[in-house]
Amino acid sequence: MHEISAIVPAVIVFGDSTVDPGNNNQISTVLKSNFAPYGRDYFGGQPTGRFSNGRIATDFISEAYGIKPAIPPYLDPKFDIRDFATGVSFASAGTGYDNATSDVLSVIPFWKEMVYYKEFQDKLRGYLGNDIANHHLSESLHLISIGTNDFLENYYTFPTRSSEYSVDKYEIFLIGLASNFIRELYNLGARKIAISGLPPMGCLPLERTTNIMHGSACIEEYNDVAKDFNQKLQDSVTELNRELGGIQLVMSNPYYKLLEMIQNPILFGFENVATACCGTGYFEMSYLCDRMNPFTCSDANKYIFWDSFHPTEKTNFILADHAFKTTLTVFR
Asked: At CB < 8 A and 24+ separation, what contacts does 158-164 make?
């Protein structure tokens, strides 16, 4: 007997630049990617505000569930509740669990994503009616992908948090914020939730190029923090599953899959691991590649990273596919 997939009617997304399809285009921040060469491999070759050469992981997850090939940004006036009913992203590049992180680049704080979500719920009830909307929300997959910026853009860059918290205590502080966010989603009717752990953030090209002393190797200290954070997050997920009746909460962990690509690039058809496709040569001076960059590679599929901080479309696809076939199988 053939099993019917696509029980998930919508993918609803919260987080940072890993899952922001263009919300930052609509706010006053320097952290945008709505210019070439971003998006050069996206539909129509258009920059959308996705921090990649093409689609991001959540687009592929939506497609894998048979819903639609791209998830629209909530703040983009081109879209309305008809578009958002089958999937929407509230994510903002540069944000974190910690409010102090979103302040760094004046982006949308994590709590504000929840405010937008409540507004979306109201619009959805107006569009579908109360009962259908409530059922729709309980069946929709809520995805959260956030946390790297709390460490790389905040904790390790500015003295404020690191003088207040040890790394261990800061992790606990962030996990508390994550847990409360999940409880709030649950109280608003969400039942299917996936939260992503941290990648091996010491291997991002931005970090490797600052590690000149060690031959631009990955910064192991940052990778250890990511692993430690992920373990705490997994423990919290286990506890929340016990605490909240009827919730299906999973943690998807990109750490080992991305590390596997970085350590065995040839297996995945990659040639370049340490530098970004859109880079400025050896020193990646900024988070972004810029409009005039003469150093952009011709084939992004040979690179794991698109700019010094973000994966290429191909990497996003591999990570999404891996999550879909492992952690997210419970929602099929």
From this structure: 158/100, 158/104, 160/100, 161/98, 161/100
Cα gap 328→151, rounded to integer Å? 26
Overall pTM > 0.85: yes
Over residues 100-110, the mean pLDDT reads 96
Token output for 96: 């974190």
60 pLDDT more than 80: yes
pLDDT tens digits, 116-126: 999 999 999 99
Query: 16, 23, 18: which is closest to 77 by C-alpha?
Result: 23
Task: Decide if 76 is catalytic.
Answer: no
Whether 322 sits among the annotated catalytic residues: the reply is no
Residue 17 annotated in active site: yes
β-strand 248-252 against 141-145: which pairing, if any?
unpaired
Determine which one of 136, 142, 310, 322 is catalytic. Answer: 310
CA angle 230, 236, 241 (to 5 degrees): 125
The torsion defined by the Cα of 114, 119, 123 and 125, in degrees rounded to 10, comes to 70
> Whole-angstrom Cα distance, residue 315 to residue 238?
28
